[in-house]
Design a protein that fits this description.
alpha/beta; Hypothetical Protein Aq_1857, Chain: A; five-stranded mixed beta sheet; 35% strand; globular
């Protein structure tokens, strides 16, 4: 089965640092203008996905949700969660005080991958 989400080693290390400080996490990638499409990291239970948003996989065991409209646009793409040094467009994400920004790199799935995609979970 083709996974929809991968996590770089650099992002894995930052996630572990955030888990140590904050406990369980969750990720949400919106499609709005103000926060751009930068993934945001929150303490689990402090942000709630909207109806019909899509959970595309787990980042180090934590749900990675995508805005329903953004998912419709990017449903044929693989997401790789990475991290960059610097302050991104969103200031609410847990990595911001550390001078880091989560970032997603996209690539289109191949025909073979599309035929065997992992299902998404929808928020009801």
């Amino acid at each position: 089965m083709t996974e929809r989400l991968a996590v770089t080693d650099k992002a894995k290390a930052l996630i572990q640092e955030l888990v140590t400080k904050h406990g369980d996490l969750m990720f949400y990638q919106a499609g709005g203008c103000c926060e751009g499409t930068q993934p945001q990291c929150f303490e689990k239970g402090t942000f709630f996905p909207r109806m019909n948003d899509a959970c595309i996989g787990l980042a180090e065991g934590f749900e990675f949700w995508v805005d329903r409209d953004l998912f419709e646009y990017w449903q044929h793409a693989h997401f790789t969660l990475d991290v960059l040094d610097g302050f991104g467009p969103g200031g609410f994400s847990l990595e911001t005080p550390l001078g880091k920004t989560f970032k997603v790199h996209y690539r289109m799935f191949t025909e073979e991958e599309l035929a065997d995609l992992a299902p998404v979970q929808r928020n009801a």
